[in-house]
Design brief:
heterodimer; A: alpha/beta; ten-stranded parallel sheet; nine-stranded mixed sheet; globular; B: 269 residues; mainly beta; 13-stranded mixed sheet; 2 helices; elongated
Chain lengths: 591, 269
């Protein structure tokens, strides 16, 4: 019977149910987790013996650049990233290539081999939504969604400046539905619009930008309000101002404070599973790739880690989740909606650079990059990425990423896991890299070694909860999607000092199971189902939407495309899986 | 050293990709095993014996193995790709990518070589007695890190982008070169006995480039710092009087690239 199986006798790590390495059987029926299988179902089920192996829910990556115009820009700019990394086709898989920015097919296979089943594209400009969905629908196996960039959107800035939060919310809701977007991303608020005029916002969070006269603070606060007014699955996903500059950690901390007082409200029309720990998010802001936002010092000469400042703030409050955006060393391709930040990097390195202005919406930049152990700044960045995970006490506030492919490719996650699980792994890298890593961060003094339970939080349970997909992902409760990863190591025999085994163990899962079917086994792709596309459908009053659309149509004269061609047609969406938000309609209170 | 002789058979239409013609691969194999080695032709995988008659025997190691290609093979690519040791002699002209990414050993091409010969080479010697195509000893497209080590000798001419992104090693060209030789080079030595058209050392940040003939159009980012007679660069001694330049100032304010150009041939510079 397809999608029905029993996984026997494995050591299960399911943090949302507080299961920490218990030996348990997992049952899947018709692609969904169930409490037990009986009769014919049990007789016909595929049985996997997981004795002596480690079981976790399918991996969830909540921040990765894997689909869309800038990702493809990275591919086109870097032929040297491809010719030595080629993947042959098999009877069921497509050929492909690429190291830091693999082709869509290889991305799907590589994530699946590593035990991941769900990946969110971290930045989708509205005008590039079609391209993003084209790549999502070509990515095999993975369930995906994309966050829409709204932090420098003309309509959002205009409505927020006017103080018209209802219309701003109506616009955001309409944009989500129009472009089949999952959540709200805010990139260098106010600054990217300034970049259209060749400058950034650098003074403070209260510096008004050009023309709109709106400040980063007003945009962050406004978007957070809109997000919680609608009751979106994910909180606002923030890429803070002044990213990549020495001393930026303070701006980051101040940015996080802005949403401290906003009440969290997740208003999704879904059935929440009965997990031990509340599967609903409780953060009002999800900080992206915190490493790039945690630089200390005042210049590149006195550059140091600012991770402690960020970690202290996250520790003392309860409204922030961060992903770390680790730097595992080696080649990378940096790509972001933050055009000025990439230009800054270009001026520093002279590497290949590309920049784009996305009309009334946002911008982006791409740069080819290489993180070197001999480089003092890169070495500190490596340390910051790990500090952020290790200095934040509660693992439910952190998520493991490399901000793929900005810090490095996602295929290096096993290496990051080894560093946070093993002090010896860190010490061995200290010995190889520039001494600034030791001298200018607190990583050397940190003896914390994470457990497999922590890793399960950082790589599936917490990303799922943070982005609001824990009604079906990130745990093994009855009703959840039948996504299970079986790693080929015995957790009772795993030693932190012997960290090469950790790397090996996480590189290729023994089995990656999606919707109750084996998709990858020991580094081989076994089946290539089509994944789902998650997006949000927030509901707002018709009257408000009509009024808002009048404004949109009026300013559409500034776009290079016609209004009728703006929405993403349904046929672009692979296995559409919308989440109804604010339904039944809750009155939006005027203010 | 034992010899394996490959005789080309017939005319090849679609180019063949034969990185298996490599002492590392041949070592320890019988002629019939060598015949069965797989090469790509377009989307097809075919045995080497479809294109060559194989004679002789390989040594027990690559170092003991000499491969002689008896004839012209301009449509066979990647001969000696990544080879670590041993010897290859092509008694005729070679195709594209001869000795690309080679690490050690030696290749002699008794004729012309196609484009990308010695691409991203790390060690060993590649000697081409005739002319060579574009991108000899160059970085792959998109990369700014080319040849890291080894020696390339070209008795005849080379075309454009010779030694692009060079990070080490030496290239000596007996004849002329065309456009942008030594573009983005940051280390190593390139000596051109003949003339160059333009873009010599464009965006170079280190290394040394010598043109004993005329540079038709000098890159604008180079500054003359005097003249030198019979300069010596490492073990290479040049004869005659040279104008010495540093550059390329188009790339940085403190470039460490050195360009020598014959004083007699470049009077108007």
């Amino acid at each position: 019977m397809p999608g029905t199986m029993v996984i026997r006798n494995g050591y299960v790590f399911d943090p949302l149910n507080e299961i920490d390495g218990d030996i348990k059987d997992i049952f899947i029926k018709d692609g969904k987790i169930v409490d037990e299988l009986k009769g014919n179902s049990l007789r016909d089920a595929k049985v996997i013996d997981a004795k002596g192996k480690t079981i976790m829910p399918g991996g969830v990556d909540s921040h990765s650049h894997v689909a869309g115009a800038k990702v493809n820009g990275g591919r086109m700019m870097c032929p040297e990233d491809r010719y030595k990394w080629v993947t042959k086709k098999t009877d069921i898989t497509h050929s492909g290539s690429g190291n830091t920015v693999p082709s869509v097919y290889v991305q799907g296979y590589d994530y699946a081999k590593m035990g991941y089943t769900t990946v969110f594209e971290a930045a989708m400009p509205p005008m590039e939504a079609r391209h993003t969905h084209e790549e999502i629908r070509s990515t095999p196996i993975l369930d995906m969604g994309a966050y829409m960039v709204l932090g420098n959107n003309w309509f959002i800035m205009r409505y927020l400046k006017e103080g018209n939060i209802e219309k701003a919310a109506a616009y955001a809701a309409w944009m989500m539905k129009t472009h089949k977007a999952y959540g709200i991303k805010c990139v260098n608020p106010a600054g990217v619009e300034n970049w259209g005029w060749g400058v950034d916002v650098t003074e403070s969070l209260d510096e008004p930008n050009i023309h709109f006269g709106i400040t980063p603070r007003e945009i962050i606060h406004g978007l957070t309000e809109i997000n919680e007014l609608l009751g979106m699955p994910m909180s606002v996903h923030l890429h803070a101002n002044n990213l990549g500059n020495p001393g930026c950690w303070e701006v980051t901390k101040n940015s996080l404070e802005i949403s401290r007082d906003v009440k969290v409200k997740c208003n999704m029309d879904v059935e929440w599973p009965k997990t031990k720990i509340d599967p609903q998010r409780n953060q009002s802001v999800y900080l992206a790739h915190a490493q790039f936002n945690s630089f200390g010092g005042t210049s590149w000469r006195d550059f140091e880690s600012g991770a402690k400042g960020i970690a202290d703030y996250v520790n003392k409050t309860d409204h922030v989740v961060i992903d770390n955006g680790a730097v595992p060393f080696g080649p990378a391709t940096v790509m972001t909606g933050d055009g000025p930040a990439i230009h800054h990097l270009y001026k520093l390195t002279g590497n290949k650079w590309s920049n784009k202005d996305v009309e009334l919406e946002c911008g982006s930049g791409i740069l080819s990059f290489n993180y070197m152990k001999a480089n003092p700044v890169h070495s500190v960045e490596w340390a910051i990425g790990l500090e952020l995970l290790l200095l934040v006490n509660d693992p439910w506030k952190t998520i493991l990423t490399t901000d793929h492919p900005n810090g490095g490719p996602f295929t290096k996650y096993p290496q990051i896991i080894a560093w946070i699980m093993s002090q010896k792994a860190r010490n061995d890298t200290f010995a190889e890299c520039h001494k600034w890593a030791q001298d200018r961060s607190s990583l050397g003094g940190c003896d914390r070694e994470m457990t497999l339970y922590d890793i399960a939080i950082l790589t599936r349970a917490n990303p799922a909860r943070t982005v609001g997909i824990a009604h079906r992902k990130g745990h093994l409760t009855a009703g959840a999607d039948g996504d299970v990863t079986i790693y080929d190591f015995d957790p009772t025999k795993l030693e932190a000092n012997n960290y090469t085994n950790i790397i090996k163990g996480f590189q290729n899962a023994a089995y990656t199971i999606k919707d109750g079917e084996v998709v990858a086994q020991n580094g081989q792709i076994m089946s290539v189902p089509k994944g789902r596309t998650f997006f949000s459908e927030p509901h707002m009053g018709d009257g408000l939407e009509k009024e808002m659309l009048k404004d949109v149509k009026e300013w559409f004269k500034y776009y290079t495309l016609g209004f009728a061609n703006y929405p993403v047609p349904d046929k672009y969406i692979r296995n559409p899986s919308p989440v109804q938000v604010n339904k039944p309609l809750e009155a939006i209170v005027g203010r | 050293m034992t010899e394996v002789i490959l005789r080309p058979k017939g005319i090849i239409d679609i180019m063949v990709e034969a990185e298996v013609i490599n002492p590392d691969v041949f070592a320890g194999k019988t002629p019939s095993e060598i015949e069965q080695l797989i090469v790509w032709q377009g989307a097809k995988q075919l045995p080497l014996s479809d294109f060559f008659d194989v004679e002789g025997s390989a040594g027990s190691s690559a170092t003991d193995t000499k491969i002689i290609v008896r004839g012209n093979v301009p449509r066979v690519k990647h001969i000696g790709h990544g080879m670590k040791a041993g010897e290859i002699v092509i008694e005729g002209s070679g195709g594209m990518h001869v000795g690309s990414e080679m690490i050690g050993g030696s290749i002699l091409v008794e004729g012309d070589a196609g484009a990308w010969a010695g691409m991203e080479m790390k060690g060993g010697t590649l000697h081409i007695t005739g002319n060579a195509g574009d991108h000899v000893g160059c970085a792959y497209r998109g990369s700014w890190r080319g040849m890291y080590g080894g020696r390339i000798l070209i008795d005849g001419n080379a075309r454009s982008q010779l030694g692009g992104g060079m990070s080490g090693g030496e290239i000596h060209v007996g004849g002329n070169v065309e456009n942008f030789p030594g573009i983005r080079m940051n280390n190593g030595l390139i000596v051109v006995k003949g003339d160059a058209i333009r873009g010599v050392g464009a965006q170079m940040s280190g290394g040394t480039f010598v043109v004993s003939g005329k540079i038709k159009q000098l890159s604008p980012g180079f500054e003359s710092i005097g003249t030198e007679k019979d300069p010596k660069i490492g073990e290479t001694v040049l004869t005659g009087e040279f104008i010495k330049f540093t550059g390329d100032y188009a790339l940085s304010k403190t470039p460490k690239g050195i360009l020598y150009a014959s004083k007699d041939a470049n009077e108007e510079v």
